[in-house]
Amino acid sequence: MPAAKETWSESQRVFITGGASGLGRALALRYARAGWRVCIGDLDLERCGDVIAAVHASSPFSHALVCNVTREEDLQAAADWLKQNWNGVDVVINNAGVAQMGNIGDVSLADWQWIVDINLLGVVRGCKVFTPLLRAQGGGHLVNIASMAGLIHLPQAAAYNATKAAVVALSETLQLELEADHIRVSVVCPSFFRTDLAKNMRANSAELESQTKRLVERARIGADLIADRIFDRVARGDTHILTHAEGRFAWRLKRYLPYRVYQAVTRRLLAKVQARMRRRPA
Q: How far is the C-alpha of 115 from the C-alpha of 99, rounded, in Å?
């Protein structure tokens, strides 16, 4: 006798901010293929429609909501919708983010406030709003998308590094704080992969913007593979998800080498990358 087909009430539920493009879109499609109900929140309504149309092939009960992560009321409205329509949510992925590149003397405080409001406070708002819902339903999983920039701090990216490092610190704090409530917390730290993050990047020089975009666009790994790795490692309950082997190696170097030795190694690697980028056409 064939196995019973999974019903609407049995499938698990995921909410993804920034779900209309890039890694958020890839995660939405990955969870849909696994049979989850997927709800995405994003500012881009047109792209939301495109993603949901693709997701519906695997997950017909999925949904999109307008969600600006700089507005706590938007995230609260999403939590309320999920409670009212799906009786809650199993996994919340705080994915929405932007990039800011530039030397410390060149980046305006307005740009600092912009990136902090999205990359850090957007995650804070997501965790703050959804924790009561997860606690009330007896548990769940918060997944915060940081970056290797939260662990390995390269020059000309102070604002980006600082926000991503803060997301790591927030996540590690909540891993202990929410443990008694049966709420798991994972932080994801990918290295460079092909995505459209650079499209919304702010940079204080054309050369720096061009170099950063090329590093992203020419990365060997795409968003779909990163989404696969995140899906698998969230499922097994990993607290720290480093999606690239070279990222895990760099993190170990920083943790175990004397810091001056680590800095010397980093300088040599940076010089090689910069020389390679200068040789490549734009």
A: 7
